[in-house]
TrEMBL record:
Keywords: Heme, Iron, Metal-binding, Signal, Zinc
GO molecular function: electron transfer activity; heme binding; metal ion binding
Binding-site positions, Zn(2+) 1: 42
Name listed for the protein in its UniProt record: Cytochrome c-552 Ks_3358
Binding-site list for Zn(2+) 6: 77
Amino acid sequence: MKNKNTLTLALFSVTIGASAFFFGTSVSKASNIDGMKLYLQHCKTCHGVDGNPTDLGEGLGARKFADAEWQAKTSDERIIEQINEGTPEMMMPFKEKLTPEEVKALVPVVRGFKK
Ligand code: HEC
């Protein structure tokens, strides 16, 4: 009987430990969004894998993200606003598709294309 109690206690501790482990990983995942993955998923059809617009993007009027002058005059807020709101008939808004954290995570990706 005593042994059985010990086993129950041991199983209980393992369960608690496992939940803490899973909870821990899901929390760290939420604050560690892969911006490049989101970019490749949602943006590359128009803006290209390297920030150079595809034929589709260019046809719609997208610029090169490598353009240092554009990078310098464009604020992070402007990039966030563009992703959230889009431009009618040119780029769709993403505020319904992406969380504010995901939109924020895309800013360094766009910045990273600067030459
Ligand atoms: C359907 C094609 C398309 C997709 C998909 C798309 N864009 Fe755009 N994007 C455009 C076009 C076209 C413009 C130019 C719009 C303009 O000049 O107002 C643009 C402009 C921008 C700009 C520049 C805004 C400025 O102030 O000059 C940024 C930054 C941007 N897009 C980021 C993104 C990100 C990040 C994604 C993915 C979440 C994305 N875009 C998805 C077509 C697209």
